[in-house]
Design a protein that fits this description.
The chain is α+β, with helices and mostly antiparallel strands. It has two domains: 79 residues; 112 residues, D-amino Acid Aminotransferase, Chain A, domain 1. The strands form three sheets. The chain has a five-stranded antiparallel beta sheet with strand order 10-9-8-11-12. It has a four-stranded antiparallel beta sheet with strand order 2-7-3-6. α2 packs antiparallel against α3.
Length: 223
């Protein structure tokens, strides 16, 4: 039976803030607590309205989770609702926030081209100063999402002594460039936090708070 929760010392929103502080391009998002007061919900709607005014075609997504402060556990199987039009966002947010913490983001799933997760691990038996990286990813002409990476069967694994330059056997130069970029950025993260998984998406259009193609959704404990 697959686990429904995972141990996480800090909430998802805190981990996102940490990624931003470390220079990662995180999604444009607004955080809404479980069973929020009306004012908190309105702040999220005001945030979304500003984006809607700038780009009336922009859709929104709501990622949900449950976090237990006492046991430090976080749910890993909760709803992820995509493609919400601005005029429908209030109803969806009110409905979901009754049961979950919510992360509303303003990225476009259809623009995803490569997505996946990466783990960089070290431990007994590893050669000194060498780190093993494991990347599961998916490639799609449209709508590549992290959730598809586990079932795609595509991997990019190896050992890194500092930053890597290239990986033999990958024919698609763009793919190689993206995967190397992912590994090198994750190596930078590893200097501060050990044995974690990072989730990412490479978009065909500018995305995230830095308006760059590569967006990092979160990090979570490995295992």
């Amino acid at each position: 039976m697959k686990r429904a929760t995972v141990k996480e010392i800090e909430e998802k929103v805190v981990r996102l803030m940490q990624l931003e502080k470390m220079g990662f391009n995180i999604p444009r998002y607004c955080y809404v607590i479980h069973k929020p007061l009306r004012g908190i919900t309105q702040m999220a709607l005001d945030w979304a309205e500003e984006i809607h005014k700038q780009d009336p075609e922009q859709i929104f997504n709501i990622r949900t989770y449950a976090y237990d402060e006492k046991s430090k556990t976080e749910s890993i199987k909760t709803p992820h609702v995509c493609d919400i039009k601005f005029e429908n966002l209030e109803n969806e947010l009110q409905k979901l926030s009754n049961d979950f913490f919510c992360m509303v983001d303003a990225e476009t799933p259809d623009n995803g081209r490569i997505a996946g997760n990466i783990a960089i691990l070290e431990g007994r038996g590893f050669i000194s100063k060498e780190l093993k990286f494991y990347v599961d990813y998916c490639i799609k002409e449209k709508r590549a999402m992290v959730r598809d990476a586990d079932s795609s069967g595509l991997h990019f694994n190896g050992v890194a002594k500092g930053l890597i330059k290239e990986k033999e056997g990958l024919e698609d130069n763009k793919l190689e460039q993206v995967l190397v970029m992912v590994v090198n950025k994750a190596l930078h993260f590893h200097r501060t936090k050990k044995n974690f998984i990072l989730e990412w998406t490479y978009f065909c259009k500018p995305a995230g708070i830095k308006r760059e193609p590569l967006v990092w959704w979160e990090y979570r404990k490995y295992g």
